Amino acid sequence: MMPHEIRDRHRILRYRHLLVRQMVQMKNRVSGLLMETGVEHTKSRLHKVGYFQEMLSKNAEIDASIRPLLKLSRKTIERRQKTEYALVSSLQRDPLLADRS
User: Fold this and answer.
1) Confidence at 23, pLDDT banded by 50, 70, 90
2) Which of 13, 50, 65, 66 is deepest in the core (most CB within 10 A)?
3) How far are the Cα atoms of 22, 56, 93 from residue 44, in angstroms, in the given order?
4) Among 89, 98, 99, 70, which residue's Cα sits nearest to residue 12?
5) How far is CA 67 from CA 20, 23, 49, 74, 93, in A?
6) What gap in Å lies between CA 61 and CA 81, rounded to an integer?
7) What 3 state SS string does 74-88 have?
8) φ and ψ at residue 41, rounded to 5 degrees
9) Which value, to the nearest 10 degrees, does the dihedral of the CA atoms of residues 50, 51, 53, 56 take?
10) pTM for this prediction
């Protein structure tokens, strides 16, 4: 059995994996909503903050019924990204992991 300290780090990595999966699912839902309603968008730029905000504010093709869903989805993605970044940063600063490399 792995030492307790290593198991704790594995738990953090599993949680990060969950967050990344959820972000991908949410990004796919955003793309799906746009495709479903026929909104033209640049796929490679869709999840960039500036492009997404510009698309919401300037694109008249976006139906009013999906705007709240798109905004909520974007906020969810951003929260997950911040949490994922914090987890990775904590692991990078972890002295036990630094000693292993």
Assistant:
1) very high
2) 66
3) 19, 16, 32
4) 89
5) 24, 19, 15, 11, 39
6) 28
7) HHHHHHHHHHHHHHH
8) -155, 160
9) 170
10) 0.85
